[in-house]
Every structure is written in structure tokens, then in C-alpha cells.
Amino acid sequence: MATTEDLDAEINDLHARIATLQAHRSNLASVLLSQPHLSARLQTPNQKAKSSSAAQRAIEQQSKRNLENIYRACTGVTAYKVKDPDPSAINNGNILGVSIDVSIGGKFIETYHVLLNWRERIGNRLLKIHKHTIPPCIPLQHLANKWLPTSWKDAEIDPEQDLVRFGRLLRKELVSWHMRVKAVDDLKQEAGISSLKPRDANDGEVANAGQTLNAFVSDDEASSDVEEDGIEEGPVRILDIENDAAVREITITWSDRRVAVMTVTKDGRIEKASCRARDGGRDISMSTKAIGPIGGLIRRLKQPMSERGVQQQ
Prior knowledge:
Elements: H1 4-33, H2 38-42, H3 49-74, E1 77-83, E2 94-104, E3 107-121, E4 124-132, H4 140-147, H5 163-191, H6 201-217, H7 220-229, E5 238-243, E6 249-254, E7 259-264, E8 269-276, H8 284-290, E9 292-293, H9 297-301, H10 305-308
Antiparallel strand pairs: 1-2, 2-3, 3-4, 5-6, 6-7, 7-8, 8-9
Helix pairs in contact: 4-5, 6-7
């Protein structure tokens, strides 16, 4: 006789299968309703009027959905109206919203919103950012000051605003940022950092505290011995890859205590790199190899120590 746990497991399995079949049915219905000649076939006299009208409504809804998806994929910036529920809001709560869709690799990653209010002046509307969901690392205020200025040198002349240019450049900044984030994530996976097991936090704190105390109370030879103990034996590997919030600077740390700091452009290329060798000198060869796209960074740097030809200053 089946137990309660077995029955619950079977019920959950049935629910999962039903959800999968419903999703499959929805996909098949979307493909069928998107056929270009289906609407003309339904208008033949052999079809029943009631079933034909219901199918026609479904086709129209699918056509609107397809048009919206195409617009979001091609344009990425949409303006809409929204009402501020605050009774003391300016302009009776009327707000202009700008929706920015970011898609990478054929998938929608995130949707950001910028809400704008305005003030009337001599028949013109001067837009001003009210609220937004843009990350702090994106230069939103810089773009707003350039393309949506609210003041001018001459107080009697209204500044010229360009909302279209503002939306395009803001979306470009967001897409570039997401692509840089994805490139760094791919670097970490290629370097195998995500698969490494993190050390116990307490052990790390004790070890760091012990090394700090030894550095204070011991002489130079003893402190150098502590530093030598911190170097891992075996093949050199990447220990960590760090980046700032805007992904404009990347720091790579190796197991032999080499550290490389790299400057990244907005389009995801490393334009400057500075690698510090184990003895504190600069590794010119490694710094030169780092220049290029982020995507091939690990491949450019992953070479045997004997083939690197380290040059130091």
C-alpha cells in the first residue's frame, strides 16, 4: 500500500507533467496562429461562423503579440503614460515613462524604466527625471544633463531637449554594461573559479591574523618566510577575478602572487593592463598579452611559465 509520501510525490509529478504539457500546447498554438495564410483559410464558406470568429479573434491577439515582440526586439525603447497616485504630485500626477528592454543572445535580460515629469514654460514642456530603476554605475545623470537639460545660460531661453537621443544612448550604456558583466562571468567559468570550494571563513581570519602578528613581531627574514608559505605549490592558476560595479576595471590574482589590473572600454576591450610580478616588478610580457577583447583574455594569458618570457622593470 502506497504511503502518504509516495502519493504526494506522484501528485507533484502529475502537476509538473501538466505544466509541461500546457507550456508545450501554448508554444504550438503560437506557432499555428502565426501562420500567414491561416486567416484566409478560416474565411472559407465551409467553416462554421461561430468557430471561425473565435479563431479569428485568437489570430488577431497573436498578431498583436508578435508585433509587440518584434518591436521590443528591434527598438528596445518604448514610451508610455503612467499616473502618479500621490495627490500632491505635479501635473495632476501625469508622468511620461520610458521603458528600456535589454536583450543579449536572443533573450530578454532586464527591463529598466525612467519616469519623467515636466513643467510648462511658454508652451514648451521641459522634461525632468522623476524616478528610475537604472543601476548606479550607469551615467544616467550625465546623459540627462546633456540631452535633457533643465536650465540654460540665458534664463529667458529654454534649453533644447532630445528625448529620443537620450533613450538611445541610455540603452546603449545598459546593453554595453550587461555584455561586460556577461564577459567577466564567462571569464570566471573559463578559469574554473566558480568550481573552486571556498575556504572556511574562520580559518581565513585566523591565518590572516597570524600572518599579521608575525609580520609585526618578527624580522625581515621571518616575514619573508611567511610570505613564501602563502604561495601555493603546483601549477600556477588563477585564484580570483574581481571587477568594479561598472566593469571598467578587472583585477586578476594568480596563485604565485602575481596581480594584474586592467582597464576596460565600454565596448568590452582591454585597453590598458599592468601586471605586478612576484617580486614587485612589472611583468611587461603579461601586460602586453592582456590587451584585446575580454573574451579571449584567459586564452591569451594561459601559457606555460617557460614560454612567457617574463620581462621586468
